Amino acid sequence: MLLCIDCGNTNTVFSIWNGERFLCTLRTSTHHGRTADAYFTWFSTLITHYGIEPDITDVIVASTVPRVVWNLRVFSDRFFGVRPIVVGKPECLLPHPPRVDAGTGVGPDRLANAAGAFDRHGGDVVVVDFGTATNFDVVAEDGAYVGGVIAPGVNLSLEALHQGAAALPHVDISQPERVIGTNTVACIQSGVFWGYVGLIQGITTRIKAEYGRSMKVIGTGGLAPLFAQGELLFDTIEDDLTMHGLTVIHAYNTENG
Ligand SMILES: Nc1ncnc2c1ncn2[C@@H]1O[C@H](COP(=O)(O)OP(=O)(O)O)[C@@H](O)[C@H]1O
Ligand SMILES: CC(C)(COP(=O)(O)O)[C@@H](O)C(=O)NCCC(=O)O
Ligand SMILES: [K+]
């Protein structure tokens, strides 16, 4: 079985793929100080809780935080005897290499999103991924990642208001009833929620105009469903797109490595 690890700047997600479906998805906060032993303690407790007895034979990692990769490598080697495939490293083959400026890096989460989106939709796609940052990943007709947009994430925007303005409290995101807020919390929620709706609409419209072909827009990441309510921002929402992309990249490496 394949263990897929998607490590974002906020959360690290483990999913076990049995070749047909994901058996479970486990989430923990991202800390570069977490040791291989700490990962295993957490992992084994949860899979026991869920009654799963996986036989992990392969591991693939996509991490937007370079410092966590070392401990994930040790975790993989020590507990499963497996050398992981790390997306973005030269030894990890990509089904469709990205076309970007020479010398620039592409986030491994974006490479996984591109692979997952192409496998499911066949290209000409924009993925909108709501993580710590909100990424727009453009996937060309042939499956290559060809660029995109990086905007501050929803929670980062809320946190920045709280950090930067003495009288503004920490607020959780939700869809406000009205645009004109009549208290501080409602004003902040309106600014971030409706600001985000405008950002998503505005950027996808401009991407489509610049790209010059019709495109599908796929929402992914924890907050995508919040922005689907009542607004036609996405053609589809796929929570497991990054994980699916990891299974696609793994299969490609198995066949071609
Ligand atoms: N279902 C959800 N509802 C509300 N907030 C969420 C949900 N999923 C994730 N978040 C929040 O969205 C932010 C980004 O989370 P995540 O997608 O895990 O980011 P990353 O992949 O960058 O680690 C975090 O602040 C997280 O707490
Ligand atoms: C844009 C990101 C910070 C998003 O990370 P995340 O929100 O998933 O933690 C990540 O994809 C990244 O570090 N990218 C490198 C630069 C690039 O992709 O162009
Ligand atoms: K992510």
TrEMBL record:
Keywords assigned by UniProt, alphabetized: ATP-binding, Coenzyme A biosynthesis, Cytoplasm, Kinase, Metal-binding, Nucleotide-binding, Potassium, Transferase
Active site: D109 (proton acceptor)
EC top class, as a word: transferase
The enzyme's E.C. designation: 2.7.1.33
Cofactor note: A monovalent cation. Ammonium or potassium.
Binding site for substrate: G107, P108, D109, R110, T184
Annotated catalysed reactions: (R)-pantothenate + ATP = (R)-4'-phosphopantothenate + ADP + H(+)
Subcellular location: Cytoplasm
Cofactor: K(+); NH4(+)
InterPro entries: ATPase_NBD (IPR043129), Type_III_PanK (IPR004619)
Binding site for K(+): D129
Metabolic or biological pathway: Cofactor biosynthesis; coenzyme A biosynthesis; CoA from (R)-pantothenate: step 1/5
Record: residues binding ATP: D6, C7, G8, N9, T10, N11, T12, V13, T132
TM annotation in the entry: none
Pfam families: Pan_kinase (PF03309)
Described purpose of this protein according to its UniProt entry: Catalyzes the phosphorylation of pantothenate (Pan), the first step in CoA biosynthesis.
Family affiliation: Belongs to the type III pantothenate kinase family.
Subunit structure: Homodimer.
PANTHER family: TYPE III PANTOTHENATE KINASE (PTHR34265:SF1)
Record protein name field: Type III pantothenate kinase
Organism: Marivita lacus
Lineage of the species this protein comes from: Bacteria, Pseudomonadati, Pseudomonadota, Alphaproteobacteria, Rhodobacterales
Gene that produces this protein: coaX
